[in-house]
Design a protein that fits this description.
Strand content: 5-15%
Strand order of the largest sheet: 1-2
Structural class: mainly alpha
Shape: globular
Length: 144
């Protein structure tokens, strides 16, 4: 367990370093695992990459740096257990940014009224790359 925690710490320390010292390239490089562009047969969409870069560069370095701490170190288990309204958890099974086992599969167990939909082959950026499927499932959930 200690080795796993150290690996995560190294990973997030690297993200912090890239955010502070290599932001321009970091926001381009991140699009490959984020949108699954590093997978065989993927069609890289330069417009999507440029838009991601634009959004990243519009944010402040301090906010991004502090945000990394917040999303990597905050324990939301009690919050999830307190939610009693219907919640839809959607997760790509090929999410290279937040692995499904570390997030959706744990979250759904904590929610009192949760519904889980997983998507084989979908990346973290699935709302962009797979918007037709995601939007259909979202609309279905909110109209149930």
């Amino acid at each position: 367990m200690k080795a796993i925690l150290m690996a995560f710490r190294y990973l997030f320390d690297d993200i912090r370093d890239q955010t502070l010292n290599n932001r321009n390239q970091f926001y381009i490089d991140l699009t490959f695992p984020f949108y699954g562009y590093n997978r065989e047969g993927a069609k890289v969409k330069e417009g999507v990459q440029r838009n991601w870069w634009r959004q990243g560069m519009m944010g402040g370095i301090v906010a991004h740096y502090d945000g990394i701490k917040a999303f990597s170190e905050t324990d939301f288990r009690e919050d999830l257990q307190a939610v009693d309204i219907p919640v839809l958890v959607m997760h790509g099974e090929d999410d290279q940014i937040v692995p499904i086992a570390n997030a959706a599969l744990k979250s759904i167990k904590l929610l009192k009224n949760g519904k889980l939909i997983t998507y084989p082959g979908f990346p973290h950026g699935m709302p962009t790359t797979e918007h037709e499927t995601i939007n259909k499932d979202l609309l279905e959930f909110i109209t149930e």
